[in-house]
Structure formats: structure tokens, C-alpha cells
Design goal:
Helix content is 78%, strand content 0%. It has 229 residues and is mainly alpha-helical. Helix 3 packs antiparallel against helix 6. The N terminus is likely disordered.
Length: 229
């Protein structure tokens, strides 16, 4: 029942614009999977089985567009989950408008993916040949897109079916962990295993994977506290 003089708290399921955006993202993601499911399965298989034959695969402009879109879906999904976390653990009566908070978190995740890409492009070509770099480039472009496919369903279930928040965080953490260890495994297989470069692999692990994640976590916590006021 609505009480006169009291504002109704913002709710994503009650927001028609956000619901339409999420519905479009879900439909387009389904279309991408249906159109390219064979090559998606082949590329996922190639992430874990290095002998998978990708000789007939050519990365097209459409593939790049699909990856960019799914990366955007991942950013939106994580921004919405971050907003939900903000409202659950860091809520304040002085919180900014919901769209502004969601845009802030979306900007943080966008900056994170761009920073990771920049770090990879500046460091990894130094100690690899062109075929290895091409293989790794396909890997680090595909992982954020894979996040979009994994995290969007979790976000939709959490928002519209009211999945328990702790279970949601566990599922998201599991999806991110799968992506992280997939990248680490591929880096080890492509660059370090044959030459047994253990020290460079440890440096890669610390500087290009763990440090950016720690920076992201610290930034999210700092922004959550700052928005709380």
C-alpha cells in the first residue's frame, strides 16, 4: 500500500526501461548462441584442450561484434549486481539516483577490461611470437564475452526470480573464477609450459591477473563506501 508523502524505493523489475534493455540483451545473446553455437563450442573446447583443431576458423568482423556485445552484456550484468550489492550492504538515504550508481559501476568494469587489454598488449608480445600472440589475443577477447553468457542468466534470475543474494554471489564468483583459471591455464600452455619458464609465469600471474583483480575489488569497495556517504 502506498503511503502519501513517502517515495517508492527504486526496483529494477519495476523499471520498464531497464527490463526492456535486459530483455533485448537476453534475446540477442540467445540469437548469437543459436547462430554460432558450433564455433562457440569449438572455441570453448580449445580453451581447455590445446590440441583442438581451429585451423578452419577465421575470426571475422561479425565475431568481433558479437564479442564486443557480449562483453557489454557482462559489464551491464556486473553493474546491476554491484548496484544490488550496494542496496543490500551499503544502502544510504543519501544514495545517488539509481541510474547514476549503475553507470558508475559500469564505468568501473569497462575501465577494468580496457586496462587488462592494454596491459596484455604492452607486455605479452615482448616474449612471444606472432602465432602465440594471435592465439592469446583470441583467448583474452573471448573470456569477457564468455562472462556475458555466464553472468547474464544469473543476473536475470536474481532480479526477476529473487534468487537468494548469497547464492547469487557464489554463482558469480564461480563464473569469474572459471574465467580467471581459464586464462591462467591458457597463458601457461601457450607461453610458459614448453620453455618451463616458472619465474616469468609467476610474474605474469601476479602483475597481469592478481594485481588488477585486487585493484578492481579495492575500487569497488571504495566506491561503495563513498556512495554510502
Amino acid at each position: 500500500m502506498r503511503v502519501e508523502g513517502l517515495s517508492v524505493p527504486y526496483s529494477i523489475p519495476a523499471d520498464n526501461i531497464m527490463s526492456v534493455v535486459l530483455m533485448v540483451c537476453a534475446l540477442l545473446s540467445i540469437m548469437i548462441v543459436m547462430r554460432s553455437y558450433k564455433i562457440l563450442l569449438l572455441r570453448i573446447r580449445a580453451l581447455y584442450i590445446r590440441t583442438t583443431n581451429l585451423s578452419n576458423y577465421r575470426h571475422t568482423i561479425q565475431d568481433s561484434r558479437d564479442e564486443l556485445f557480449l562483453t557489454g552484456v557482462a559489464v551491464l550484468s556486473m553493474a546491476l549486481l554491484s548496484y544490488s550489492t550496494q542496496m543490500t550492504y551499503f544502502y544510504s538515504d543519501h544514495l545517488l539516483q539509481p541510474y547514476i550508481v549503475i553507470l558508475i559501476y559500469a564505468g568501473i568494469f569497462t575501465a577494468f577490461f580496457m586496462l587488462k587489454k592494454l596491459l596484455y598488449m604492452l607486455t605479452i608480445p615482448v616474449y612471444c611470437n606472432i602465432p602465440e600472440w594471435r592465439t592469446w589475443k583470441y583467448t583474452f577477447r573471448f573470456i569477457p564475452a564468455l562472462y556475458g553468457l555466464l553472468i547474464l542468466p544469473i543476473t536475470l534470475i536474481h532480479i526477476y526470480l529473487r534468487l537468494n543474494f548469497k547464492i547469487t554471489l557464489i554463482l558469480v564468483f564461480t563464473a569469474i573464477t572459471i574465467g580467471l583459471f581459464t586464462k591462467i591455464y591458457n597463458a601457461w600452455s601457450i607461453f610458459f609450459r614448453k620453455k618451463r619458464l616458472y619465474v616469468p609465469f609467476f610474474l605474469y600471474l601476479c602483475t597481469l591477473e592478481i594485481a588488477p583483480l585486487a585493484l578492481l575489488a579495492g575500487t569497488l569497495l571504495s566506491v561503495a563506501e563513498a556512495l554510502k556517504g
